[in-house]
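Posted in: Protein Modeling Q&A

I'm a second-year student putting together a small comparison for a lab meeting, and my supervisor asked me to include a predicted structure for Phytase-like domain-containing protein. I've never done this before, so apologies if this is the wrong subforum. The sequence is pasted below exactly as I got it from our records. If anyone can share the structure token output, I'd also love a short note on what stands out.
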Amino acid sequence: MHRVPIAVVTAAVLCTAACSSVTEDTSDGGDGTRFAASSIDWNLDGADRYHRLATYPVVANAPDGEPADTETVAEISTVSADGNTMIYTDATAKRVGFVDISNPAEPRGLGTLSLAELGSADDQPTSVIAHGEYVLVVVDTTAGDFAHPSGRVDVVRIGDRSRVRSIDLGGQPDSIAISADGSFAAIAMENQRDEEFTPPGGDEGDLPQPPTGFVSVVDLVGEPDAWQPRRVEIDVEQARKAGLDTPEDLEPEYVTIASDGRIAVSLQENNGIAIIDGPTGDLVGVFSTGTVSLDGVDTVEDGAISLTGSITDVPREPDAIGWIDDKHLAAANEGDWKGGTRGWSVFDVTTGEVVWDARTSFEYLATRTGLHNEGRAEAKGTEPEGLAITEIDGTPVALVASERSNFVAVYDVSDPAAPAFRQILPTTPGPEGILPIPDRGLLAISSETDDAEAGVRATISLYGFGERYADDGGVAFPTVVSGDVDGVPIGWGALGALSPDPDDANRLYTITDNAYGPSRLLGVDVSATPAVIDTQQAITENGEPVSLDVEGISARGDGGFALAVEGEDGAGNELVQVAADGTVEERIALPADIAAGLGSQGLEGVAVEGDSVWVAVQRELDSDPKGIARIGRYTPSSGGAGSWEWFGYQLEATDIDGDWIGLSEIMVHDGALYVLERDKLNGPDIAVKGIYRVDIPTEPGVSDAQADPPGPPQNPRARPGSRSAGHERLGPGEGRGNDRRRQRQAVRRHRQRRPRRRQR
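Accepted answer (user: helix_wrangler)
Welcome! Here is the predicted structure, written out as tokens:
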């Protein structure tokens, strides 16, 4: 087996542009092991890719005095004419937000405009678009009365946020677009269905549920007080002839306008697209977006990433659409009540024919990058919802957002019949709005999922394209991908642990925790950029795959592994020894009194040192002083049961309500223990995420839960478990004085080292 020392691992993980990419065919390791290889060259020059500049939590833009846990989101966005003020809808909080992005690396909240000030507390914004000195705010005023939909457009002056005009739309609106010459706006009037209503002869949420939808065209000639709406109907019989679902109740979802003024509107629930001449309001055509059958996708929500399922004749039901050119239209096939095909398509609008379809490729992007959402396997998978078309240096580019797997994929669509994948951009949960700002080379992605309790807030992510933004951007995503075997990527995600290979400086091992089962050992080639998961091995016991909540892994010198398994309670925590082929060799229980003192946070890390094994316990035992976690050492015995001894570890302190500090990982290297210490916070609230070096104790530890465990060595005056001269902070996270200087120096040293490419 190939293994690696810790210092070289760190160098490999931090290596970026100078490392090579793996694009070779699947290969055999010589011992029968089949290595998967990356099918995509993920590496782009800084001049040819987007760079993440900032992630702005919209809760920071909430009104003064609003409780911090109030749900607030960002959905659809627009930007002022000068490109410096971003405006977004927040339907949850029933307001519109303003953000200064003049410095995209440091966005600054400018406050919000409540719709209660413009109308009713029940009004919800559905879309926004800037036009000159104004922003048009599309407002749904239906307030749950689906049988009597209503809505309006508020024309708001951006400078002082005063409303200068309100235009009644005669129905419930959704999206808005403005023509290239600025002469008119088109609004999708959805008149959406009530998902809890059962129509005669149908099921709950079915169509038809009148009134039918339409398109409103607002002429923008002159000053706002002269603007007038025109109602454009979509012919029912033409829709029926085109094969649309329930054509008597059409539900326009999304509008986009071609350079020549033609309006394309997606009819999501009806599985179709209509083309309208904007200036005249004439219906040019209607076509069905058809169905898709796929093999090789995950269709069962069973906790396993199993790309072996199929979907048959599923309607595309597109949401967002965008003109690539005057002939070709791209569509994100999110799906609604009957469909969703996990990808996106390109249509020839003159014939309604599909000229290209993503098939499984969009969902496989999520799988390769660890973004697969198992909880949506039985539904619509990646659920592509948002889509925008922009132009970069003369090249047409499609941006497609996965609402459920939380990314935006970037494609070169110079040839609409053969889009070329270029880049994947991670987002926070629920990317909804995609806003290219081509004059500044920027991209803003607004996310609608907000979970204050989990510390995951809705955000606006800002990206900049090209070399001018490279210095402000961080490490390129992804840093780890999985390789393909026979065209199918290895599924991964929720990795609970990491270990170097002591024999191969270019290899790591990791393992899935109980979020995905059964448990699998994954091999990682870190000589490539990004690193490639190239092998997988199921954990088995008595010949059957098993699911373990593995929180720590350490590769042994004989090719096997030691696993730290965290149970649902104390008794479920155990040290598990596994052979190189994944077979469980031995389950080693913790001493009964130690197990009894554990809560729901138990074993988190494991490290092999010769015949002994070290484990890290995440938090204090019930019987130990607050702030003292335990590190254990297990020594096997040839004559029977092995022995446990325990040492104290002083955790950092926190004064944040609801927070706690714990250990997350442990490793042995060069005569010392390295531990990862962290708080439980996410995002901008993070305070402690650090790696510490601790000298290996020379004195014996205690054997039971009642005795006070000794602390680190070299400081006999320190209280048990306290910091000492043998305790040094090395990693990122909260630090002070020399600790911070040591941290920065260590990172610089690691970045200067280059790993050797693994020879197969």
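A couple of things worth pointing out for your meeting: The chain is about 5% helix and 40% strand. The CA atoms of residues 176 and 187 lie 4 Å apart.
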